[in-house]
Design goal:
The complex is a heterodimer of chains A (201) and B (1012).
Chain A lengths: L1 H6 L14 E3 L8 E5 L4 E7 L4 H7 L12 E4 L2 E7 L2 E6 L8 H4 L4 E5 L4 E7 L3 H6 L16 E6 L2 E9 L3 E7 L3 H13 L3 E5 L1
Parallel strand pairs in A: 2-12
Antiparallel strand pairs in A: 1-12, 2-8, 3-6, 3-7, 4-5, 5-6, 8-11, 9-10, 10-11
Chain B lengths: L2 H7 L19 E10 L2 E7 L3 H7 L6 E2 L6 E2 L12 E4 L6 E5 L9 E5 L25 H4 L7 H13 L14 E13 L3 H12 L4 E4 L15 E2 L2 E2 H14 L3 E4 L2 E7 L3 E6 L15 E13 L3 E3 L12 E3 H9 L8 E6 L2 H12 L3 E7 L6 H9 L3 E4 L2 E6 L6 E5 L5 E5 L2 E5 L2 E3 L12 E3 L4 E3 L8 E2 L9 H18 L38 E3 L4 E2 H9 L5 H8 L12 H12 L3 H4 L13 H5 L11 E2 L3 H6 L3 E5 L2 E6 L8 H14 L2 E4 L4 E6 L3 H8 L12 E7 L5 E11 L2 E6 L4 H15 L6 E4 L4 E7 L3 H6 L18 E6 L3 E6 L8 E7 L3 H12 L5 E2 L2 H11 L31 H4 L2 H4 L4 E8 L11 E4 L11 E9 L4 E9 L8 E6 L4 E8 L9 H4 L1
Parallel strand pairs in B: 1-7, 8-9, 8-15, 9-12, 15-28, 17-24, 18-19, 18-24, 19-20, 31-33, 34-44
Antiparallel strand pairs in B: 1-2, 3-4, 5-6, 5-7, 10-11, 13-14, 14-15, 16-25, 21-22, 22-23, 26-27, 29-30, 32-33, 34-40, 35-38, 35-39, 36-37, 37-38, 40-43, 41-42, 42-43, 45-48, 45-50, 46-47, 46-49, 47-48, 49-50
The chains are: A alpha+beta (201), B alpha+beta (1012).
Amino acid sequence: MAEAARALWQSRSPWVGLARPGRHGAATGAPGMHVALRDGLGLATIVAADGCEAVLADRLLAFGGLPEPGKARFTGERGLVWSAPGQWLAVAEEPGVLSGLAEELHGLAAVTEQSDSRAVLRLTGPRAGDALRKGVAVDLHPRAFGPGDAAVTVIAHVGAQLWQLDAAPTYDLAVPRSFAGSVWRWLDEAAAEFGYVVAVR
Amino acid sequence: MTALALARADAPAAPASAQPQRVAGGLIDRTRPLAFTFDGRRYGGFHGDTLASALLANGVRLVGRSFKYHRPRGILSAGSEEPNALVELRGGARREPNTRATVAELYDGLEAASQNRWPSLALDALAVNGLVGPVLSAGFYYKTFMWPAGLWEKLYEPLIRRAAGLGRAAGQADPDCYDRTQAHCDVLVIGSGPAGLSAALAAGRAGARVLVVDEDVVPGGRLNGERREIAGRPAAEWLAATLAELRSLPEVRFLARTTLFGVYDHGAYGAVERVADHLAVPPPHAPRQRLWRITARRAVLAAGAIERPHVFPGNDRPGVMLAGAVRTYLNRYGVLPGRRIAILASGDDGWRTVADVLAAGGEVAAVIDTRPQAPEALRRRAEAAGARVILGGAVIGTRGRLGLAAIEVVDGRGVGATIACDGLAMANGWNPAIHLDSHLSRRPAWSEAIQAFVPSPAPGGMITAGAAAGRLTLAECLETGSAAGAAAATECGFAAESVPAPATDPESAAHTPVWRVAHPPGRRASGKAFVDFQNDVTANDVALAHREGFRAVELLKRYTTLGMATDQGKTANLAGLGLMAELTGQPIPAVGTTVCRPPFTPVAIGAFAGTHRGRAFRPTRCVASHAWAEEHGAVFVETGLWLRPAYYPRAGETDWLQTVIREVETVRARVGLCDVTTLGKIDIQGADALAFLERVCANSLAGLAVGRTAFAFMLREDGFLKDDCSIARMGERHFVMTASTAHAAKVMEHLEYGRQWLWPDLDVQLASVSEQWAQFALAGPRARDTLRAVVDDGFDLSNDAFPFLACGAVTVGGGLPARLFRLSFSGELAYEIAVPASYGDAAWRALMAAGEPFGIAPYGSEALGVMRIEKGYAAGPEIDGRTTARDLGLAGMVAGDKDFVGRRMTDRPGLTDPDRPALAGFRPVAVGERLRAGAHFLALGAAPSLGADEGVMTSVAYSPSLGHWIGLGLIRRGPERYGERVRAYDPVRGGDVVVEICAPTFIDPDGERHHG
């Protein structure tokens, strides 16, 4: 009984039943966008206690330090994304990396586990920006938004956090988990004319 | 060569390949012939044609019937201002009414049909309306159909609607998709004629991000319709070179087939791109149209100008066109709109048509200039071509049944003549296309020089250039365009320079427009002189409006409908103003103008919706157990954006009530599982977290120990209840607030308001964890047994160790973190367990499996609601923003020894009035009777009236536990009146039930079960 019950405890991707690996939309030519499902990331919100930002920045050097408003700072797959005044989203390749953070920053910041709260996609390719433009009002032109830039915005009527990783361009898009179905439906329609490929991480 | 020959051109015999009016030249691609049908007949055209140019090429001049009088109408213009040539395109679900033939690109297989005619275009029975014209004049329906009033809706309106109308909507779901996107730029250039391209070049060379939009398929604007020279070479060469340079600039972008239809605040613009309207069916995955939301730092308006028709009797006869349109059909489309064309000019510009008609092989019958003088050179050239030249003349009538056959003219001395012609080109000057500049309520200015409104010179608007700025000559377009582009780029911080304007062939913009072609005294007017072709508004209608006192420009518009409908009076408005100015003896600027509003031309609603249609109109949120619920046939209900399982029917259950009763009984007798992921969950941390919560909540939290949960409620600043919630103290400085589904976002805002604005000195941090945790309510006598099988060993769940209102961190499934709260919304022994959302689906399945031996069943929001009503717990219907803590029986919990949001206002007399309706329970006196939420309470025997109203039933349910309907409601002095009987009166649904007031707690009033 216990063994059978244990076998039930599988985590479920927010994209299950939505994203299918392979090519979708326009079938000819090079795909305009590649989509990777970023399941299993470690995420946490960090809210600085009053007046503690400077000390906090020192403590978070392992993450590259605190990014300025509108910025994201990454070292490899670990980094911080500015979310609001005095607030950041910590991102890591898996939740375990962040498990000691609350203890470490005790008194300096409130750290809240959010690894399950967001459905995250990585979008890259020549038309990734054009697909995103159909949902976000942010100016994604290289003069206005480039690698290291982050935005808290709305995509297809859903609150979202967006940050750019490289000039390919590559973007990470995080949306609230319960909205994954609506966001995917929008993405599928937005990217269909360019053709896109889904890869599972 | 008169009426007879013309009748043949309209006769029903044109073969598909013959295009009798097609001549050499033009920008069409003769290697790509296209076939299309109009009213079921096949015709041929070429790639590059519009429907209008192809119809004219085939000699089809009659294309529609007018709105009110059903008069035969042809093609007036060659652009988006067209008032007459409205057609239905395509068939079936793709049928699209009121499409202007002048902008509909021809494609192979295009089906077009005329509209507003019966039984056929050539023989329209309702043309009889034209004979009763005096009855149908302006404002006729205000006067004619006044009596009897009852017949308006039943008879008159439907008749009028059928008789006067435009096209028919498809009536089926649109099979195509629409897209929405955004663009940002430094300089938005509206229009790609000589001014727009010069602006783009000046801004683009400076490195600005430039976006050029044009409603046309090809850039060039009027250059495509005229034979002009720039720098001594054909203008096409300048155009090609300019486009080549613009294409080489990486930050210059061009959107063709894109109409900029609206200007909004803060540099926002709306445009619609016709991505696939020029195709029968959009290619796979391509939208039909795309809506662009453009954000620009500066905009250059270079939208050109719209030529003005003349107002004279019979000016609507097919074959009467704008002179610029005649030249466009000749030069751009290789179509001769008539074999023998007369020109009615009020300026030098119209005379240009002479040479173009001759060059295309046509004949110029006459040039009638309304001015007494015209330049000698123009006159000599026309006469050399064999044209009769009449100066100071007028056209006073037209002839021909379904198309122009002759015009009646008078010369400056009043001598009349009839001139045979099958085309008449009207050149009455040009109106700058200033519509977009006035969308933000900027009033245009009057230019005496060009006798037209030009954009307001006041700062703050768009930078205007070329004809749109009233600078009508090509040389001025090139010069002002370049200057505007440079100015716009400079304002964006680029070092931009005006490009030196190249020389052009000489041109004169001299003109003296006439608002109504003079009618010689003593001659009877022969027919209607139209001001607004689309709405059938005549010069006499304007005069009538004047006589009846509707002289203000806005009244003139409403009374006569001048300037309304799909073309918004682009060719009509100024003539209407000019006539009113003459009638009132005022100058035109004193008459004023109406305000232009978006959209510039009609935009399909589908384009605004984009992908957000049907269920995707707004986003949907799914709960953690959604997949399981779908697998098990749950019925869902929308709660805000959430899709929640409402109930889970089983085989054999025939209605929702049967299912809900079974679910309630299962919880009361065994155990049930409910997904409450939708609740708002807020993580509150910090040294001052408790102090913060004390200021937010009205009840005291002083005794809240770590590991315990408290029921709490918040007030608004005005003293009314905001929401109830539970607060779990997970650690010394760590709390988790659970707010109701409906109020979750508002509560978070409220807390942030307190944290950021009211008490910035408090050390408190907030984080929404609504999405992080999936949360389930496990309720019923066997809840603990079920939970025991899911929570990892080592956690003591006994009543002593984890009593009612306990909370704490546990692990499940072999080490997964979980939060456990002993809360009950059902009145039973119950827990809420939260697990990381990724494991929500797994936890649900594990709990269902663990509860199987105990007879577990899932229950939905319906059963949840029934059980909370049985327990008398207030929820959304009671906490509706109009109730106080006292109203809901919570007065005893309001803390007297602390300050909190809303406290001051709770003591207002109106809020402490003992006569206020207060919460009570209600049960029908006759056990079988059904209660209805929304019913009002009346004393027995009292007549229903507002004064007799004692309160309202807020929530009702059929109680399986009691076997009858029960209700909660707010009634005057409710708690003092238990046992009293009142009427629950519901006239809307015919309910009138005698109920007994009782305590709101119907089940287990002492709470023994949830403590067990």
